[in-house]
Please model this.
Amino acid sequence: MDKKSLYGLLIIFALVMAWMMWQSSTYKAPLEETTVADTAKTVKTPEIKAENSDVEQYKSDSTLAVRKFGSAFSDFTKIEEKIITIETDHYIAKISNKGSAIKKWTLKDYKKWDKSPAQLIWSKKGELFVSFVTLDGILIDSRDLGFNFENLNSDYIKLSGKDKFTLKAKLEIEPGKFIQKTIVFSGNDYILNQNITLQNMESFIPARGYNLNWAEGIRYQEHNSVDESTDAHAIISANDLIEEVNADEVETIEKKIDGDITYIAIKTKYFGMALMPQGNFKGEVQVKGTHIVAKNKGIIEKYYTSLHVPYNGGVLSNDFKVFIGPLKYDLVKNYGLEEMINLGWRYGIRQIGEYFMLPILNLTYSIIPNYGLAIIVFSILMKLLLYPLSIQQMRSAQKMQLLAPLMKDIREKYKDDQTKQQQEIMKMYSEYGVNPAGGCLPLVLQMPILFALWQVLRSVIDMRQQSFILWITDLSGPDKIFSFGFEIMGMSFISGLALLMGITMYFQQKLTITDPNQKAMIYMMPVMFTFMFSYFPAGLNLYYFVFNLLSIGQQIYINKYSKNRPTLEDLKKMPKKESWLQKKMAEAQQLAESQGRTIPGKAKSNDNNTNIKKINTKPYNKKK
Model:
């Protein structure tokens, strides 16, 4: 192995080691409920809070209550909390009369990683609440105020199919002066239709208006908090643009946008909330994200969103649609929220995944209703699709194999003269019409497709908690086959499918790499990729494993059984077409010769080489 190849391998090895060390500090176990609670106590979250957030201490002291809430609102803090339950086909919601906030939102069709119900609300005080500043400069959080449920006959309402239920909650300060929230629940939909009406509240709420808030993001549901935090962020759709607010790299991040607001959204990997103002809504959005490292080195990201609604007195009525549920592509696309699903870079990669990969995967699953088998069939389809590109890559590898004995002879013959060795190798490539970089272009053309595929397989909720065979119990998470009981450079287990993928990669490299200088890659790359891919979703590793098996079969067929297998004589007889790389190297050689230099690629006579050496040994005279 020459020095350049050795240095390259050392750099690759160092990068992988650095990646694994980074993993050891971040890629940790799930956040248990106690961990989340403990962390929340020590880290300030961006939830709107005034000094009056704890109401209990003011109930027995009317003077203190008036000072903290103002005379107009202090009496409403003494109303006892009442919670009603609304069950639909998809969720069970608990609504409090305190600000008519959502206390719990439990999905019926989805489970948390530990198989407990998937409950999406993180804040104990509830979400989707109003806040405003009074004329006296007091910050009011509606979750501290008891609203009156006007049309409620039962504490439990069950809806199904096309059933609808309208909940009205009113905070009436004086006759004809009130805040009213009207929420319409549907039996077969994840959407809430909410109306907020202010009537004659200008003597209590100044012209700056009120805020409609979601305070603490979406509750985590997955086994690995770091992986979930990677996909957790807020999205603002305003002024025909999409803005993402992501606290991955900083402790706190803030963003404010005003203008035409389409929606504000908060998401984790598979679940989300979106607030969509109706009509031609103009206002201001504020988003704040916090990045919290928990005690066990897991990560929490919480996002606070606030939609500011201007109010100029009189009667103000605004309608909002609210989505709270799973990020299933066909579902969110109906609401115009498909951007909430991370399908890769918006310009190129996403389009391949959204309009090509995902429809093929869904079609495959509709025929074969098992995602493990569907991924295997999908791998075969992708292999057929990429055949025109992969066959060029394999043909190029086949030609390089034919030249391997000649290359070995050249390396042995000129082992003490690297320049002459490279010149003879380039001469051999030219004589047999082989482009050493011929296999690179097909590989590069495949990369956008593979990136899009990777993003689709790790983002679609349909594979979440879907088992396949044997030890593969969840295609959306790593399939642990062996745990060390301790960490090695951040790795605590090996994935079964990643190990199988690494084995197939070894045999694939064995069939294609013929350059002795690259032999170490045959052994190093499979090992490194096995460790790296062990934390990837099982569905993704299943795809790569099957794809590698198919590639091995294709390469063996081309090398041993194909009727179109060329020989060295065939390569000599084939029409020679100078590649772009060869043209550039020829131009470089001509330029070097015109300057009296030599570079690998073309031999010069001994006399010329001697003259060059003599010229180069003359002392340099600045005056000349």
